[in-house]
Design a protein that fits this description.
The strands form 3 sheets. A 4-stranded antiparallel beta sheet has the order 8-1-9-10. The chain contains 9 helices and 10 strands. The longest helix is centred in the last third of the chain and has 37 residues. Helix 1 packs across helix 8. The N and C termini lie far apart (about 75 Å). It is flat. The chain is of the alpha/beta class. About 40% of the residues lie in helices and about 20% in strands.
Amino acid sequence: MAAESRVNPAQVKKAVAALAKHLEKVKAEGKTQLFEEDGDGDYYSVMLSTRRVPQKGSNKLVPVKIPNPLLNPDKTEICLIVKDHQGEGHKEAKKKVADMEACGVAKVLGISKLRNNYKPHEAKRQLCDSYDLFCADARVLPILPKLLGKSFFKKKKQPVPVDLTKKDWAAQIRKAAAATYAHVGAGTCIHVKVGTSGMEVAKVAENAIAAIDNLVQHVPRKWSNVQSIYMKTNESVALPVYNALPDPEEEKSAREEEAEHKAEKIAAREKWRAEMEAERINTEAPPAKKKAKK
């Protein structure tokens, strides 16, 4: 069961309203962004800061449920990356997508074509800019970073996983398109988009409140490990919506957990060394002498 939220919804609504006024002012003054985050205009974002550095980082995107999708299902163009073997499997996937109900898939791209046709950096960049969302068969996700290059990760458009072992592909793709995504890396800051500049302020606030509660569930020790939460747009200042007070008990618990984790790592390393040493001794031991026949 999810813990009760510690964020005041009224504070979130005030922050969103202030950011909306900032966007209107920037637009009225005719200013443009110096650096666009992904070429699709301004986004409202939630930034969550944890008390402790995670013991283990990950490059995987974490899906975060929100009530109001950031992508318009009627206008969104999705590129679906599928598993194939030397081109085989790609045609079957295209046929299945053509036969199923519409879910926004505009292109089906096999791994073989991705590897052979998108080697130059410029080709990868153009591919990245051509679609609103990239979904990929979860089974091929580990090999995609090398094939896609830096553009996708710089613009935060790396493919999100979908389970294509299930029969209803359309449902899996719609579910992926309806969520927003967070990258829980090796640092203390977690960033997630919760709205676009074209959305109503009330809907952005709803998304932010839901995203905060859902995002906390992916943080080790949940709310006990949350130090602060801010909201911002691409180039605005960050507005605080939550700040935790010092908690000696949480600090003590975190230190004990880290010490336990460190002890487990040391024990595992010592066990591995002992096994390697035993294997070396057995390998180097001279063969047993055969007994002479009488």
